[in-house]
Design a protein that fits this description.
Length: about 775
């Protein structure tokens, strides 16, 4: 396969492979495709040299980089190659920018193109020079500010020519003259003197050791994008910057070795003092290259480009001044090489025809093999990696969009179920923490509940709150009862004065009315307690609702029928508990006066039930510690010192009472009022400090709230369905928790891109 055929063939194959690479990377970019990052990275890295090679093939360019340190003789080498002392070569820096030399077939195509820097590029140059502290260059630019501005304003220019000598001056001006060259981005020379093969391009880049990062960057870019390299080297062993050439070459073209495309020209051998020194110089250089880059000795040519120009009468006056007298150079070369024949001396001794022959041989015979090696390596890597991505993704994703959608949905449902199983454990744990902390106040490990609820700063449990609400309700209702009772007093007393006040009759009548009001009071308290317990239950349901992302289904599933039904059930239950203990106390204290037959009979009928209340009394007044005793003695246990001492063993009275309750001097109305009021107070005392515990309100409250918790935990299947619904309906609170792969996605995007990759591979007969 010749170069033209090979170029066309690999242009097509690289184009197809990069198309495959693009589809493979697009597929790998989808997280749901789950392509290992390593495979994607391989494709991205391999695409870079493949694209560079493809661009060269499209342009039909074969790029040869001529590199080396400053003053190594690169420009002189190129001049010798062109058989024209064209590029500037002098003692100081003579190349300020990259010169590109293109091979053209026809003389009429020959031209010099000069591309000027833009203002932005010129400013960047100044900044770089300042950063590199290149004060000499900065001073030069300031000195020639006018001419440099003129070049930028003129813009790009083209100089047609027939003979290379015709463009020597403009080339020197824009490449080497510091008055103009700093404003030039690059120069392109098109000539039919470079090579017989079409598309050959030489790049003559300023030395890597110029001190400017720009030159290093240009060299790195060029070495990354070339087909062959000619290193012009002056010294036996490689310098640090020359070692960078090896590194840049390796980085830019990993599919072929440095030895595959590198040629070394050991320049200026005519500066050596003896034949022995020259022999040693060549041998040491060959050994060094073999060690560092495995470069065979046949890729190393020694010689002198300057001597070639001199001995072949091509050298300009400047070159003659730089190199020396032609006769002396010829004599010295004869001494170094032992070649007496002048014609052979001009060719073999100078090395230029030798290295040209090697390069042309490489171009005509070897470069197709190197191109194949380079391209096939890229093709194999890109295609095999893309096939691997296809295989991996196709295991889990079908190519058909409908199948892909169904597959994705099924897969997501399975993944959600797995996630939900773990989430349900967390929900149950959180609920238990909440219950322990805010319902029954159990001590939690580390006592850290800040994340459970916004009420986490309070230390009062819901049971505590329920008890406090009970006491407040009792106080309020008893206050209302007293007000209502004493409003009725005067009418009752008047009704029982016919014509004189009947103390006993009025007492009974007042108590009968009071007992009816107390019955209503107990029902009211039970209802208000039910409301409070309902509120606490709804708070608990609200927290459980928050565990399931605010789903309305939680309350509907836990509070059966309706809130009114739930409240009615609580009210009935609390009324039963309340009346079980509060009604006997009311019977004993309110139905009959102290020491009345009615009162004594009631106590006898109640039996042990009334004694149960004593076990739950938690107040501090000993007069109330035994209900039967207080019922028997009444307020005397509070205010009669003798009875308190005799019965309770307590000295003193509860309050300072000016009157003697047993005295006949007390008006009968006042005596009734005093007795009834203290019985009401006693009833309130038992409501506050005995009935709550005796009725088991706390246990009932805990039982109801715990029942809600148990019901919630037992409905795992229900909540599984609720969670699934909330997920499918894209509840934002739920979506904030679930992994990214469970969120709504374009289900067929993987399938779509997988299909595109499949088509690209099949079009290349790879699947």
């Amino acid at each position: 396969m010749d170069w033209k055929t090979a170029s066309s063939y690999y242009e097509t194959r690289l184009t197809d492979a990069l198309n495959i690479q693009r589809h493979a990377v697009n597929l790998a970019n989808l997280p749901q495709a789950e392509v290992p990052a390593k495979l994607k990275q391989i494709l991205i890295q391999e695409a870079q040299p493949a694209r560079r090679q493809l661009e060269r093939l499209k342009k039909r360019e074969f790029r040869i980089a001529v590199v080396g340190l400053e003053k190594a003789g690169k420009s002189t080498f190129v001049n010798a190659w062109l058989e024209c002392d064209l590029l500037p070569a002098k003692g100081g820096r003579c190349t300020f920018t990259t010169t590109q030399i293109y091979s053209v077939e026809h003389e009429s195509e020959q031209r010099l193109e000069v591309q000027a820097k833009t203002e932005a590029e010129f400013i960047n140059l100044l900044q770089e020079l300042e950063k590199a502290k290149a004060q000499e260059d900065i001073n030069t630019i300031h000195t020639h500010e006018i001419t440099l501005q003129q070049v930028r304003q003129e813009g790009n220019r083209t100089f047609p020519f027939t003979r290379l000598e015709d463009i020597r001056e403009p080339l020197k001006k824009y490449v080497a003259d510091e008055k103009y060259a700093h404003a030039v981005l690059e120069a392109r020379l098109y000539t039919n003197k470079l090579a017989q093969a079409e598309g050959i391009v030489f790049y003559d880049v300023p030395g890597l050791d110029s001190g400017l990062a720009k030159h290093v960057d240009e060299a790195q870019e060029m070495l990354s994008d070339c087909d062959a390299v000619i290193l012009v080297q002056r010294f036996t062993s490689l310098r640090e910057k020359e070692l960078e050439i090896i590194k840049f070459t390796e980085q830019g073209d990993k599919n072929v070795t440095v030895a595959d495309k590198l040629f070394v020209f050991l320049s200026r051998i005519d500066s050596l003092g003896s034949a022995e020194a020259m022999k040693t110089h060549i041998q040491e250089a060959a050994e060094d290259w073999l060690k560092r880059a495995n470069l065979p000795s046949q890729r190393i040519v020694s010689g002198s480009a300057g001597a070639y120009l001199l001995l072949n009468s091509i050298a300009s006056e400047q070159t003659k001044l730089e190199i020396g007298n032609p006769i002396k150079i010829q004599s010295h070369l004869q001494e170094l090489t032992g070649i007496d024949d002048v014609e052979i001396l001009k060719t073999e001794a100078t090395g230029i025809p030798v290295i040209k022959e090697k390069i042309f041989h490489y171009i005509n015979t070897e470069r197709v093999a190197i191109l194949k090696k380079r391209c096939e390596a890229s093709l194999n890597t890109i295609i095999s990696t893309s096939e691997e991505i296809y295989r991996l993704v196709s295991k889990n994703h079908p190519e058909n969009p409908e199948d892909a959608k169904l597959f994705a949905e099924n897969n997501r449902r399975v993944l959600f179920a797995e996630w939900w199983n773990q989430k349900w454990l967390i929900i149950k744990a959180d609920l238990q923490k909440y219950y322990d902390a805010y319902i029954v106040n159990k001590t939690l490990e580390n006592k850290t509940l800040e994340n459970l609820t916004s009420n986490s700063l309070t230390q009062i449990t819901q049971i505590d709150k329920f008890r406090e609400e009970y006491l407040q309700i009792v106080d309020q209702e008893m206050h209302n009862l007293k007000e209502e009772t004493f409003k009725k007093k005067d009418n009752i007393f008047l009704a029982n004065s016919n014509p004189e006040f009947d103390r006993m009759k009025a007492n009974y009548a007042w108590r009968e009315d009071l007992y009816n009001d107390i019955s209503k009071l107990l029902a009211t308290i039970a209802k208000q307690l039910a409301l409070e317990l309902k509120s606490e239950a709804l708070n608990l349901v609200e927290y459980m609702t928050s565990l399931l992302w605010g789903s309305s289904q939680v309350k509907a599933r836990l509070i059966e029928n309706s809130e009114d039904y739930f409240l009615s059930k609580l009210e009935n239950s609390l009324s039963v508990l309340f009346l079980r203990f509060a009604r006997p106390v009311a019977e004993a204290l309110i139905r009959g006066p102290v020491n009345s037959d009615t009162r004594n009979k009631i106590i006898k009928n109640l039996g042990v039930d009334i004694e149960i209340v004593d076990n739950y009394y938690t107040g501090n007044e000993p007069a109330y510690s035994v209900l039967k005793r207080y019922v028997k003695y009444g307020s005397d246990l509070l205010f009669n010192p003798e009875i308190r001492q005799q019965i309770l063993g307590v000295t003193g009275v509860v309050t300072q009472i000016a009157m003697d309750v047993a005295s006949e001097l007390i008006p009968p109305q006042q005596a009734v009022i005093f007795e009834v009021e203290n019985d009401i107070n006693a009833f309130a005392e038992y409501l506050r400090f005995a009935i709550f515990n005796a009725a088991g309100f706390e246990s009932y409250c805990v039982q109801e709230l715990k029942g809600l918790v148990d019901s919630f935990r037992e409905k795992e299947g229900t909540w599984t369905g609720v969670a699934m619904n909330e997920w499918l309906q894209e509840n934002p609170l739920l979506l904030a928790e679930i992994p990214k792969n469970l969120k709504s996605q374009e289900s067929n995007e993987v399938s779509k891109r997988l299909r595109q990759l499949s088509v690209a591979l099949k079009n290349n007969h790879l699947l």
